[in-house]
């Protein structure tokens, strides 16, 4: 049974086996978490992402999928990149957001990781309402096959939404 914890902070500073990146399907970087991880982790991460794009992920990473690369200069051992769904008021994409968490956990467990840090996937540029994202994330990580799951929230409002009792 995994310990679940909530931290107000920067995911790139976390000392865990796996840091999850809220990427986009190109795997070639972006803003937000994606930008921070590539900036702090260094060019090796992008180099491995490019290899993935040249190989099995030629068409890009699909929403909900997850794939691992080196963590470069970060304190973690791996970055698991996942593509969150963009919020839609007309289409229920909740299962895709849950998939991001479930697939990231599966990839991390397959690597032998025992500790993982998640950002609040899809709640930034992809505009997913934070309260709803927190519900989905909590449910998706129950019974996870790891020892520690840490949600790293970048602002107080998001922290409050995730860390509610
Ligand atoms: N550490 C932890 N959380 C962070 C950090 C950080 N260094 N930087 C941003 N965040 C938070 C945001 O405040 C938000 O709560 O991560 C959450 C997710 O926001 P985004 O990074 O915008 O991710 P998302 O909404 O999933 O949008 C993904 O944005 O950066 C691009 O390439 C990315 O196209 C993709 C899209």
Automatic annotation (TrEMBL):
EC number: 3.1.1.106
Keywords attached to this entry: Hydrolase
Organism phylogeny: Bacteria, Bacillati, Actinomycetota, Actinomycetes, Pseudonocardiales
Span of domain Macro: 1-165
Domain of life of the organism encoding this protein: Bacteria
Pfam families recorded: Macro (PF01661)
SMART domains registered for this protein in UniProt: A1pp (SM00506)
NCBIfam families for this protein: PRK00431.1-6
Record's keyword annotation contains Transferase: no
CDD domains hit by this protein: Macro_OAADPr_deacetylase
Molecular function terms from GO: O-acetyl-ADP-ribose deacetylase activity
Entry-linked PROSITE patterns: MACRO (PS51154)
Native source species: Lentzea rhizosphaerae
InterPro entries listed in its UniProt record: Macro_dom, Macro_dom-like
Protein name: O-acetyl-ADP-ribose deacetylase
């Amino acid at each position: 049974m995994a310990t679940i914890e909530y931290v107000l902070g920067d995911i790139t500073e976390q000392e865990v086996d796996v840091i999850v990146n809220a990427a986009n399907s190109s795997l070639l970087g972006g803003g937000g978490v994606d930008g921070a991880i590539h900036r702090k982790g260094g060019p090796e991460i992008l180099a491995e992402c490019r290899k993935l794009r040249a190989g099995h992920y030629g068409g890009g990473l699909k929403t909900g999928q997850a794939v691992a690369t080196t963590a470069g200069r970060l304190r973690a051992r791996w970055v698991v990149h996942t593509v969150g769904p963009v919020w839609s008021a007309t289409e229920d994409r909740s299962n895709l957001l849950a998939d991001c968490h479930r697939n990231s956990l599966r990839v991390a467990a397959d690597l032998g990781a025992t500790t993982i840090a998640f950002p609040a996937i899809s709640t930034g540029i992809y505009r997913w309402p934070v309260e709803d994202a927190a519900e989905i994330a909590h449910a998706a990580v129950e019974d996870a096959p790891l020892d520690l799951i840490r949600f790293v929230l970048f602002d107080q409002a998001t922290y409050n939404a995730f860390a509610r009792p």
